[in-house]
Design goal:
Mean pLDDT is 76; it is low at 1-24, 173-182 and 254-271. By secondary structure, this protein is an all-beta fold. 1% of the residues lie in helices and 41% in strands. The chain has one domain.
Length: 272
């Protein structure tokens, strides 16, 4: 749709997760960031945001984050809206691969608390690493993320992290978050909060299964048919090329996802 971003052309329907955290006797439980979080587009600056929709599960051992990242791909002679589903795990007690088993070659991640702020890190000190500091305003239903160049073990209790801020709203605040429009790809969370539910009301789609950013399989999604995808899956949902008439011509010089069938870890801004 001309004049709209990929984010504005994908509709999200979410249900808030509820995961309780047991506290030790006499100790105050840390904030619970579990839930469905949607980018607050009204406060978005010029920076690209990785994971405009996030489904978070938290317990005393780890934080699991399913990122839904919006973009476009050159399919059927034009740029079409697509979305990528990327799971992350941050463990509280050790550095470990973000995905896969202990022998995985994936970059390592870790979580810790700094007062009431949650610090999430991926290979800090590396050019492709990150340190995110999350703060929860439970009353406002708001999650604030600050990206910082400070070391991952810095004390953030007395002073906010230095760096750009991004705001997320609970899934029920979709209108304020600015996630609306043509319903080309619809994604939601099932009532048990264990699966994403994806459908393409206007055309047939393809669900591309990924492993460490590389395509390992795919299956068709018929127009209008809901498809359930486990939260910790790595996948891409994109329109089927057969849904559009072929219009071969040179691809314009602009940033986009790779063309259908050539998915890889080419987009460094994914934070992967």
């Amino acid at each position: 749709m001309p004049g709209t971003s990929a984010l504005e052309r994908i509709t999200v329907a979410g249900f808030v997760l509820a995961v309780s955290i047991p506290a030790a006797p006499g100790a105050q439980a840390p904030p619970d960031v579990s839930g469905v979080w949607v980018l607050d587009a009204s406060r978005k600056d010029a920076r690209e945001v990785y994971g405009e929709l996030r489904v978070v599960e938290q317990d005393e051992h780890e934080v699991r984050v399913t990122m839904v990242d919006y973009g476009t791909a050159w399919i059927g002679g034009g740029f079409r809206p697509v979305l990528r589903i990327v799971p992350w795990t941050y463990r509280f007690d050790r550095w470990a691969p973000r995905r896969g088993g202990p022998d995985s070659t994936q970059p390592v991640t870790r979580a810790r608390w700094s007062g009431e702020r949650l610090v999430l890190a991926k290979t800090p000190g590396e050019s492709f690493g990150h340190v995110w500091v999350w703060g929860l305003d439970a009353a406002a239903g708001e999650l604030r993320q600050q990206e910082t160049n400070q070391t991952w073990d810095s004390d953030f209790t007395q002073k906010d992290a230095e760096g750009g801020r991004t705001y997320f709203l609970r899934g029920g605040e979709l209108e304020r978050a600015g996630v609306e429009a043509s319903r080309e790809i619809v994604i939601g969370v099932d009532e048990a909060a264990r699966e994403l539910v994806v459908s393409c009301p206007r055309y047939d789609c393809v669900l591309v299964e990924l492993l460490s950013g590389r395509r390992v399989g795919s299956r068709p999604l018929a127009r209008g048919a809901p498809e359930r995808v486990p939260l910790m899956s790595e996948a891409v949902v994109e329109p089927a090329a057969s849904s559009y008439p072929a219009r071969p011509r040179a691809v314009p010089a602009r940033r986009a996802f790779p063309a259908q069938g050539s998915w890889s870890s080419q987009r460094s801004s994914w934070g992967e």
